[in-house]
Amino acid sequence: MSEQLTLAAETRELVGKGASRLLRREGRVPAVIYGNKQDPVSIHLEEKALMRALMTGHFMNSTVSVELAGGTTTLTLPKDVAFHPVTDRPMHVDFLRIGEHTTVHVSVPVVFTDEEESHGLTKGNGVLNIVKHEIELVCDASAIPGEITISLKGREIGDSIHISDVSLPKGVTPAITDRDFTIATIVPPTVPTVEDEELDAAVAESNAEAAAEAEGEGDAAEGDAAEGDDKSE
């Protein structure tokens, strides 16, 4: 089960771009808590504490207990984190307010095991083609899986792994119910064709010509520079 995280926060009286920029200069990240038929609450978090939570790798599929100054605690589920396009610093967080046993919709990472026991991968030199790195699930907020483990033992080239092949924890169901969707396949190794080899050779030849041309231009520039030095003397 995914662990519950805790973040300290403070309510913010001022909202808007100017107020948010000021908070970020002070090492704080604006956020909002909404949902569960209650009014939204604007808050701000310490950026360092938020980064530590993000670095766990399972922030988006963990319940987060937001502790406000004054002793108020709200159980939430992160729904969105906005990042700066250049620095990748967190700019804003949306938290969905939930109850202890609220049914939630989450994306849970898939982990593949027993690759060494897959004949298709070890003996056939097959390639694991992952179609879905995460699976959207519906479950109780108190029982969100940290990950879904899928064994590759005995898998051969040409095998497909569908959601119906996966044993989900009790009370956990796929969010997609209208089809038996594919999670991964084991495909044959990629064999270079004559066309691929010819293209590689052409690219190598072109790179060699470009390098030689650049070297020639460099020699010419050095010659010009030397001639200029001679004249100046």
From TrEMBL:
This is Large ribosomal subunit protein bL25. Residues 201-233 are annotated as: Disordered. Residues 7-95 form the Large ribosomal subunit protein bL25 L25 domain. Part of the 50S ribosomal subunit; part of the 5S rRNA/L5/L18/L25 subcomplex. Contacts the 5S rRNA. Binds to the 5S rRNA independently of L5 and L18. Keywords: Ribonucleoprotein, Ribosomal protein, RNA-binding, rRNA-binding. Residues 212-227 have a biased composition (Acidic residues). GO terms for cellular component: ribosome. Residues 104-189 form the Large ribosomal subunit protein bL25 beta domain. Belongs to the bacterial ribosomal protein bL25 family. CTC subfamily. Residues 201-211 have a biased composition (Low complexity). This is one of the proteins that binds to the 5S RNA in the ribosome where it forms part of the central protuberance. HAMAP family: Ribosomal_bL25_CTC (MF_01334).
